[in-house]
Amino acid sequence: MTPWSGSPLLAAETYRLRDTVGRALGMGYPPPLRADLDTRGQLARAVCRLPAGFQPDQTATAERYLNVTLGPCELVWDWAAGDLTIIPVAPREVPTECWWDRAPPAAWHLLRVGENAEGPVYWDLLIAAHLLICGGSGSGKSTAFELLLEQALAAGWQAVCYDPKLVELIGYSGRDGVLAVETQLARIADSLEWVTREQARRYMLMVEHRVNHWAKLPTEVRPAPLLVAFDEIAAVLRPVKAAGDVAAVGDNRLRGRVGQAVTEVAERGRAAGVHELFAAQGVRADWFDGSIQRNMLARLHCGTTDDVTSRLFLGNSKAGVPFDPETGLGITPGVVGRAAWYVRGEVSEVQVSRVPEAA
Ligand SMILES: Nc1ncnc2c1ncn2[C@@H]1O[C@H](COP(=O)(O)OP(=O)(O)O)[C@@H](O)[C@H]1O
Ligand SMILES: [Mg+2]
Fold first, then answer.
1. Which of 143, 230, 281 has most ligand 1 atoms within 8 Å of CB, for mutation?
2. What is the pTM of this model?
3. Which domain does 270 fall in, by range?
């Protein structure tokens, strides 16, 4: 071990490191450190004496602080010697491009979303039954939506596809496993009500066979999981202004039916194997509230967002804004396919996998 000294740059670095470690350990001053540098002049390891009276129950707070301020690092607490060794872990970059290899999912409930700094990221439907994708135009929503829809079909799921924007999902018409592709509001409402009846039928089967989840049904009666794939759903959940406008009143009745059906599936679909995949341009309190918010426990925000949307959608005002080295949170701006991936309150930056052209 060599003492850390030398060039002014290194001295400045040393001070920052000592200051950070001092704060992490709750000391009132930057403690002396012994440090090794690697061949590129980066910190390879640092050793610091623990302050007198430092207790094992203080390590969790110190680790959190050091991991945020120094980046990921391994911390070795040597209580006998009374020192702490800090070994920075070279952060793995989030890849700038990744592809789905068209291999069917390893299990029906694991659909691949993309990759983060730790490796592949999956939407596990047993952890979060329904997924909502948001992001501005051109941010990669449809790419993510189709990635998940394709994998569900490859896993032998059934799907119903709804697209009020008319053309995005047209290619799915007639595909194996695709039961419907609807674009008209009235037909979407009818079709969704069929989904709720199918969901009720599955519950009756579960009662009959005394099981609490569709996957436990005997194979001869077990239905395939059903994906309700709805692009641009916000356009339909939001009521239109209707004062004195007969057509708008009719439209709002249909929107009401759509809202009721998607809520019923959001609330009760999980055990019946009916799962929702929604995409929308943005979240607004007038539709992203109540049951939708409580039940969409997997969320993907494509591209960066503002801190208000980030707080509403990702549960953290910093998780979806442009990356900030101070907090270690946020999304690298300007990389197509970058997104914030949220599951039950945990958020990470991912690169969404692309679907290769069909052979
Ligand atoms: N995950 C991704 N990786 C690389 N490029 C992407 C990715 N997602 C989208 N793109 C590029 O961005 C373009 C717009 O994406 P798209 O999914 O159509 O956005 P949106 O539906 O949000 O308008 C696509 O044509 C594609 O070239
Ligand atoms: Mg799109």
1. 143
2. 0.78
3. 110-352
